């Protein structure tokens, strides 16, 4: 059975390795339906960019953590800030 005969189950999440194998097949790279702009949890549009500087060693640690979580650097930093803001006593 080739990869284009297999469709990912809508309810079973794939691992990054399974996603990579599935989308490596050109048959699975064809967009389906009209384009959709997704917003996480229906949250409002993001603000203008906010420039933030980090020491190089700290930035490298953040990059490694973001990559380990399979997230963009910006997304990882946003989630870290959200986490800090929801901590008790914050």
Tags for this entry?
90 residues; mainly alpha; 3 helices; 40% helix; 0% strand
Provide an overview of this structure.
By secondary structure, this protein is mainly α. The protein has a domain at 53-90. Helices cover 40% and strands 0% of the residues. α2 crosses α3 (73-86). Residues 52-90 form the Arc-like DNA binding domain. InterPro entries: Arc_DNA-bd_dom, Arc_rbn_hlx_hlx, Ribbon_hlx_hlx. It comes from Pseudokineococcus basanitobsidens.
Which percent range fits the helix content? Answer: 40-55%
Tally of strands: 0
Counting helices, strands and paired strands, the structural category is mainly alpha
Individual helix count: 3
Q: Give the quaternary arrangement of the chains.
A: single chain
Q: Provide the low-confidence segments as ranges.
A: none
Biggest sheet architecture? none
Termini gap: 53 Å
Average pLDDT reading:
84
> Which percent band covers the strand fraction?
under 5%
Radius of gyration, taken over Cα atoms and rounded to an integer in Å: 18 Å
**What would the principal axes of the Cα set say about the shape?**
extended
The ordered H/E elements are HHH
Protein name: YlcI/YnfO family protein
Domain Arc-like DNA binding: 52-90
Pfam families: Arc
InterPro entries: Arc_DNA-bd_dom, Arc_rbn_hlx_hlx, Ribbon_hlx_hlx
């Amino acid at each position: 059975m080739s990869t284009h005969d297999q469709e990912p189950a809508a309810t079973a999440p794939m691992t990054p390795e399974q996603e990579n194998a599935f989308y490596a097949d050109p048959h699975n790279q064809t967009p389906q339906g009209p384009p959709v702009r997704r917003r996480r949890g229906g949250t409002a549009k993001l603000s203008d960019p906010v420039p933030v500087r980090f020491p190089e060693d700290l930035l490298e640690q953040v990059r490694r953590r973001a990559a380990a979580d399979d997230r963009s650097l910006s997304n990882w930093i946003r989630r870290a800030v959200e986490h800090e803001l929801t901590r008790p006593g914050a």
